[in-house]
Every structure is written in structure tokens, then in C-alpha cells.
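FAQ: What does the model actually see?

It sees only this:
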Amino acid sequence: MAESTLWWLLAGAAVAIELLTGTFYLLMLAVGLVAAALSAHAGASLTLQLVAAAAMGGGSVVAWYRIRQRGPVDPKASANRDVNLDIGEAVHVDAWHADGTATVKYRGANWTAAHAGDAPPCAGLHRIVEIQGSHLILEKT
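And it is asked to produce this:
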């Protein structure tokens, strides 16, 4: 079996494992394995093939890691609209209790709500910014 065939099989296995696990970095390593396969097709020695795999795979991983670090930080799950579809929905607060909570009707049930922010809470329309257990965290709209 040719060296390039082994590299292609390893690259395919890395992609298959990535599909099962969802580890995006494994795709970056597969890029390195493809570089090694292409260098084997070009007639490079085994040492150069290994260097190509390490340089492309490792370089891809480092590049992707740095790109991810520069991007915005994902909000925690309790405040992430992708995780909880209630985030961003509007509720009406009739009155706030002395302890800083309110009882609001949302989705057909009574919920305990707390106010987010430093401003004193006031009645009216609010937006859900987070859910902590069974408490809605609200901000004034």
C-alpha cells in the first residue's frame, strides 16, 4: 500500500471521528494529514511528510485557537438565547415586592422574578435576560 493511501485513510478516520465527537480541532488535524498525503503524492520523504502533517495540523489548531480567542465570549447557558428560548421574551410586572422580587404570569404559570441592574425596579414591561433555576431575571425595556 502506498504511503499516500495511508495518509488519506488516516485523514478520513480523523474526519469520521470528528463527526462522531463534534471536536472541531480534529478537523484541523485532518488538514495536516491531507498535507502529508499530498506531499507523499509529490514524492517527498517520510520525514518531510511528517513535517508537513505536523506543521499544517499544528498550525491549523493554533490558528483556529487564536481566532476563537479574539471572538466574543459566549454568554453562560442561563442567559444564552441559543440554549433557552425564553431569553429576550417580554413579561409585564404589575408591582415589585419589598424584597426586590415580583410575581409575574409567564407561559400560563406564576414565576418569581428578580430585577437585573442597579436601578430601582419599577412596574411595566420587562425583558427576560436570564433564568436562574425557577427565577426570571428581568430588565426594564
